[in-house]
Amino acid sequence: MNRLQILLSLMLLVACGASTGKEQVAKAEKVQEKPVVVEPDVVVPIFDADSAYSFIEAQVNFGPRVPSTVSHRRCGDYLVSKLESYGATVVTQDVDFKAYNGDILNARNIIAQFQPEKQQRVMLCAHWDTRPWADSDPDKANHYKPLPGANDGGSGVGVLLEIARHLATVNPNVGVDIILFDAEDYGLHENDSHLWKKHRHSWALGSQYWSINPHVPGYTARFGILLDIVGAPDSRFMYEGYSTRFAEEHVHKVWQCAGKLGYDNYFVNEEGGVITDDHYYVNSILGLPCIDIINCDPESPNGFGPYHHTMKDDMEWIDRNTLKAVGQTVMTVIYNEK
Ligand code: AHN
Ligand code: ZN
Q1: Which atom of ligand 1 is nearest to the CA of 278?
Q2: Residue in 207, 200, 293, 202 with CA at minimum distance from that of residue 244
Q3: pLDDT at residue 4 in the model
């Protein structure tokens, strides 16, 4: 291998602002699974889906990450130390929330700041807690049992840890904040669904807290990207309603970037549902334009996929190809910020 080939095999060189002719180069190269050169001045590291997969496995191995449990605390410690090992300045927000049913949740938002001195920033986020109840499980006996949370919880965090691993060695032009929100998934049990109006803010407690009390007073960023449920095989990511309402230009930027990388089978140009997820509060409380990359499956009982909020949400439902599509797209967007 000559020097150029070595460099190419280490780095993916690609820009998303490329012209049509250049896009075709990118597509042709992608079929051969080779690094892509579009604009030589932009260096994007190669997202390693095996690595992301192992970060999900590590979380699942702690057991369900339900707030106020030992597995949750241990996994939180692991996430903090991982992010610190990648050179981030990590702060946590340790808060006790009262869930809608009265449970006290020892929760922790984990905030990892890369290049904290930079004014121009991008925010990436995911929730790291898992649902305490498998209340969509086909077997009623599981409706009050905690679930493994590989996809719902684990996948977004796994992709972000893999991105953090690269942020440790290759600096983008912008500062990046990776925020792992807690207590997203302790919302209203399906058996209590008649109470939805009273408890419509029972989900996403960590992001609600952070949006009111950001780790830096007056915190802002160019935009945010939430990753939620990003690991299932053949996932389809559609335009989510609040994302287009609050952050339309960023939705199109990300979806176009995915298309240029050849991931338009995952990032489809269709309107999806309107989902009250962490990004809703980031947008509506803090006013930071934040999009949600989330897999929906309109065919399945609860609209997210047959494993969602069931005991089946385990590593069997994690596909490296999906992690790659999401991770490489998000990384390409970040490294292309001027
Ligand atoms: C509700 O189901 C209310 N929100 C979807 C967001 C979610 C749940 N993400 C993971 N679990
Ligand atoms: Zn959930």
Answers
A1: 6
A2: 293
A3: 38
Helices (H), the chain: 3-10, 20-31, 49-61, 70-85, 156-167, 205-212, 241-260, 278-281, 320-335
> pLDDT: is 21 or 119 the higher one?
119
**Average pLDDT of 188-208?**
97
What tokens appear for 237 in the block? 């990511």
- How far, in Å, from the CA of 1 to the mean position of ligand 1? 48
Average pLDDT of the residues in 93-98 = 98
For ligand 1, whether the C-beta of 203 sits within 6 Å is yes
Which residue's CA is minimally distant from atom 7 of ligand 1? 277
Q: Residue 33 has which token pair?
A: 């699974």
Confidence of residue 40 (pLDDT cuts 50, 70, 90): low
Supply the pTM of this predicted model.
Answer: 0.91
Which domains are assigned to the chain? 18-335 (3.40.630.10)
- Give the model's pLDDT for residue 20: 35
CA atoms within 13 A on the CB side of 243: 28
Picking from 231, 227, 47, 74, the residue whose alpha carbon sits closest to that of residue 151 is 231
Which protein residue's CA is at the shortest distance from atom 10 of ligand 1? 152
Least confident range from 7-21, 132-146, 197-211, 250-264: namely: 7-21
Residue 36 alpha carbon to ligand 1 centre in Å: 36
Question: Alpha-carbon torsion 298, 135, 200, 230, what sign?
Answer: negative
Whether residue 335 contacts residue 38, with contact meaning beta carbons closer than 8 Å, is answered with no
Structure tokens at 143: 């409706």
How far is it, in rounded angstroms, from Cα 304 to Cα 297? 5
The answer to whether the CB of 247 falls within 8 A of the CB of 290 is yes
121 pairs with which residues across the strands? 175
